[in-house]
Every structure is written in C-alpha cells, then in structure tokens.
C-alpha cells in the first residue's frame, strides 16, 4: 500500500493518492473522516497491474482517520502516518496527517 501527498501552492489542499495492491479483489474503497465513512465517495479504480488507485483533494493542516474496504473487509494502510484507537469500531484506524 502507498499514500502519496502533493501539496498545492495555489490552494489550501493536498492531493492524496491512495494505492492498494489487491490483485484478487473485485472492489476497493477508501473510507474515513474525509468522506463520512461512505464507500461510494471513496471508490478506487482497478488498474491493469492489479492495484487499485484513487486521488482526493483534502484540506491541509488536518489529520484524518481512515481504512480501506477490500471486498467487504476493513484493513489499515501499513504506510499510514500513524494509528488511533477507535472505540466505536473496536479497533485501530490508520491516520493520515496533512
């Protein structure tokens, strides 16, 4: 998994690209604070090499909790900026710091 960040000089946003290697998966979403945990707002597109990829513009100077939803299974990103316990989910969520 990989997260790349591109800070824009002209706007107070960061282009965040999420990449998930999941060759056997049929669908992958990124869900988190930034999209109200709604999979429909975080669909990643499957590439020919079997990875799923998507980019979002997110406000800078903020941190977000997020997870990937891979074929109905939640997973964290090993390359996240950190992890935070979430009592509601009963597990840790990945953290994205911008």
Automatic annotation (TrEMBL):
Q: Which residues form the CBM20 domain?
A: 8-98
| MF term (GO), any | kinase activity
Keyword Ubl conjugation appears in the UniProt entry: no
Its source organism is Cellulophaga tyrosinoxydans
User: Which keywords has UniProt assigned to this entry?
Assistant: Kinase, Transferase
For this protein, the record's PROSITE patterns field holds: CBM20
The family database entries (InterPro entries) matched by this protein are listed as:
AMPK1_CBM (IPR032640), CBM20 (IPR002044), Ig-like_fold (IPR013783), Ig_E-set (IPR014756)
Return the protein name.
Answer: Glycogen recognition site of AMP-activated protein kinase
- The answer to whether UniProt assigns keyword Transferase to this entry is yes
């Amino acid at each position: 998994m990989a997260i790349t960040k591109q800070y824009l000089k002209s706007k107070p946003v960061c282009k965040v690209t999420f990449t998930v290697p999941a060759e056997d998966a049929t669908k992958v979403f990124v869900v988190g604070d930034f999209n109200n945990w709604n999979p429909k707002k975080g669909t990643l597109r499957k590439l020919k090499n079997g990875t799923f990829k998507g980019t979002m513009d997110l406000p800078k100077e903020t941190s977000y909790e997020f997870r990937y939803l891979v074929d109905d299974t939640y997973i964290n990103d090993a390359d996240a900026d950190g992890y935070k316990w979430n009592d509601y989910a009963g597990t840790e969520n990945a953290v994205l710091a911008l």
